[in-house]
Amino acid sequence: MNIIVCIKQVPGTSKVKVDPQTGVLIRDGIDSKMNPYDLYALETALKLREQYGGKVMVISMGPPQAVDVIKEAYLMGADDGILLSDKKFAGADVLATSYALSQGILQFKDFDLIITGKQTTDGDTAQVGPEIAEYLKIPHISNVIRIIKATDKYILLDMDLPEYTGTVKVLFPCLITVEKDIFQPRLPSYKKKIATMDRPIKILGIAHMDDKNEKNYGLAGSPTQVERIFPPDEKFDREIWTGSGESLAEKMTEKLKELKFI
After folding, report:
1. Is residue 258 a part of any domain in this protein?
2. How many helices (H) and strands (E) does the chain have?
3. For residue 103, is it within any domain?
4. 3-state class (DSSP) for residue 115
5. 159 in Cβ contact with 152 (< 8 Å)
6. For 80-123, what is each residue's pLDDT tens digit?
7. 214 vs 90, 209, 217, 220, CA distance in Å?
8. 199 lies in some domain
9. How many domains does the chain have?
10. Given the DSSP bridges, would you call strands 55-61 and 80-84 parallel, antiparallel or unpaired?
11. Cβ contacts of 186 within 8 Å, gap of 6 or more
12. What is the pLDDT of residues 163-200, one digit of tens each?
C-alpha cells in the first residue's frame, strides 16, 4: 500500500505577526513545528504500513525552511518526501493550497491512499483534505476515528458523525482525514535520524507541475481575500476576592452577569 500524508509546518507560538497588506502570517524568524493534527495522520500511515506493507510518503508546501517538517517525518519513519516551495505559491487560500498540493501529489505517480489531519492549527478550516480529493477526482471520507481493515482494493473504517458512528468501505485510490487520538503518535527516533541524515528531499516549484498556469496558484489563484486580520487584544485585568464560599459564589455570579456570560 502506497500512502501519501499531507503535513504542514505551523507556528510554534501564538505570538505571530500579520502582514497588514496581504493578511498573511509573517513566519520568518519564529519557532515552527509540525501541525499537531498531522502527527495523527502520519502515525495512521505508519501503522498501516506495518500491517500491510508498502511506502509512506509525505508532502508539504511552504518556504524553503519547511524542509524541517519533512525531516521530522523521516525521523518518525516516512520513506520519501516532497516540499512544494515557490514564491508563486505564497499567499494561497485553502482552494489554491489544495490545488497546488493536488498537483504535487500527481508527481508521486502511484498511490493508494492519501491521509491528512483533520485541520491545521493556523487555519482551522478543515477544508484542504476534501478539496485535494475533489481536484484529484477521488472519493474521500472525513473525521475518521478507526481503521477496521484494508485490502488491495479498499479500506474499511469508522467515521465520526454528529449523532452516530458510521462504518464506510472506500475504494482505492481515496483520501481520508483523521481525528486526533486515532493513534498515539510515536516519538522521533535517534536511530532514524542517523539513518536518514542524507536522505534527499525533493523541492518542487511551479515549473515541475503539470499545470504551469501561475493564475491557479498563490494569491492569484485564491478566490477568497482577507479583508482585515488582526491579533486579539490581550487583557490582563485581575481581581482578588476574599470571603466565605457563599459570598464568593455571589460575587462570581454577579461578575459573570456583568460580563454577559450568563
Report:
1. no
2. 6, 11
3. yes
4. strand
5. no
6. 999 999 999 998 999 999 999 999 999 988 899 999 999 888 77
7. 11, 11, 6, 7
8. yes
9. 1
10. parallel
11. 43, 46, 76, 77
12. 889 999 999 999 999 999 899 999 888 899 999 999 99
| 3 state DSSP class of 175 | strand
Using alpha carbons, select from 34, 171, 7 the residue that is nearest to residue 104.
7
Edge-to-edge strand ranges of the sheet holding 113-117: 165-171, 154-160, 140-150, 174-178, 113-117, 2-6, 55-61, 80-84, 202-204
Q: Whole-prediction pTM value?
A: 0.81
Cis bond upstream, residue 200 (ω within 30): no
Q: What is the C-alpha separation between 225 and 131, in angstroms, rounded?
A: 18
Q: Could you tell me if 131 and 93 are in contact, meaning their C-beta atoms sit under 8 angstroms apart?
A: no
* Exposed / middle / buried, residue 132 (Cβ in 10 Å: 0-12, 13-18, 19+): buried
CATH number at residue 10: 3.40.50.620
The residue ranges of DSSP E strands in 15-164, in sequence order, are: 32-34, 55-61, 80-84, 113-117, 140-150, 154-160
Strand, helix or coil for residue 58: strand
